[in-house]
Amino acid sequence: MAPHASTAQDHTVPDMTTTNDDLVAEMREKIAAAADKNALAALPKKLSPSRANNFKGCPQQFYFRTIARISTPQSFASLRGTIAHGALERIFDHPPGERTAELAITYVRPHWESIINPDLEKLNERDRGYAESAQKDALEIITPGTDVEADLLKAAEDCVRNWFSLEKVNTFTPTNLELPDGRTIDGRELWVAARLAGVDVNGRIDRVDRWYTPDQVVHWSVTDYKSSAQAPWLKKPYRRETVERIKDENFFQLKVYAAVLWKMFGIQVEWLRLIYIGTDDRETGVQQLRVTREMIDATVRDLESTWGSIKRAARTGVWPTKTGPLCDWCHFQPVCPAFSSPDDEQADKAAASN
Ligand code: SF4
User: Which residue pairs from 283-290 have beta carbons closer than 8 angstroms and sit at least 24 positions apart in sequence?
Assistant: First the structure.
């Protein structure tokens, strides 16, 4: 194990075999209520790349999340990543040369406190909604003052230390980035929205970086932090085509953001970067993809076709299941038609009424 990798593995994996009857009953209730909904009207007005990716991965899972509005419980690993994120953002308040892992770690606990005790009055409506749901999700799995909370904060600190091994944090600054038209943006946690091929897209980018080559030519990259220790395509000796497919899915979100940044600001992004802060191994923890014009055009076409498929599914009520290895980790498996039948549902109801 890498010296700074998380030691809190016991908390990372949701155990689907222990899904309790109440949870399943609640999911069934929401699914029954969704059956009366107009799915077209229930679709989001703007499509985020992660929702599009979710539909591409499994339309049935998209239905559960987006139409039936069944939320997935927060995991220890993702919460650890969220807390570390706050420190990685705030360290850029300090000038290059002053950014150290120890300084960044001082932001870990305050960020955690801000998640569990958000100052809702200071937030706009959109951010208030996010803060309330983040608070609820966090408190569902962590009780403040317990050993689990201490483990969580320690694991988040480990992620912050890892990050200092993965990136040269003192050599770039994602704030006050001058755009081609002279405006400036803060490239941290940047909210973006644009209309691409008739699809309204929005989302939040972890980091936009601008850097110069020695001949003073400006370059742009988009970075996304991942809380896990490894890119999914490195986890098994997959065949080359499988690796390409998984990679494509994982970089899809950033490709969409590259298209959005071009549309909004005229920025031509050259590199997409996924940073896996669950490890300190630079070779595996930093994954990059060079952007081409063809790639962006293909991504926009893909987005347009995915949005068309989502609207068709909403019109027809047909949300196909797409089974695969990820089903083992899917929160919805107990209610998924690919894994349960109406008989199971009746049996669950009978057991609940006994
Ligand atoms: S269990 Fe598999 S098929 Fe069913 S919703 Fe989840 S990912 Fe889709």
Answer: 284/230, 284/231, 284/234, 285/162, 285/165, 285/166, 285/229, 285/230, 286/166, 286/167, 287/231, 287/247, 287/250, 289/247, 289/251, 289/254
Dump pLDDT digits (tens) for 247-288. Answer: 888 899 999 999 999 999 999 999 999 999 999 999 999 999
What is the CB < 6 Å shell around ligand 1? 58, 60-61, 321-323, 326-327, 330, 332-333, 336, 338-339
- Among 319, 322, 335, 344, residue to substitute to test ligand 1 (most atoms within 8 Å of Cβ): 322
pTM score? 0.86
Query: What is d(CA 27, CA 59) in angstroms, rounded to the nearest whole number?
Result: 17
Q: Please report, in angstroms and rounded to a whole number, the separation of the first and last CA atoms in the chain.
A: 48
**Spatial distance between the Cα atoms of 271 and 223, rounded to a whole number of angstroms:** 8
Rg (CA), the chain: 21
Residue identifier of the C-alpha nearest atom 7 of ligand 1? 327
Residue 178, helix vs strand vs coil: strand
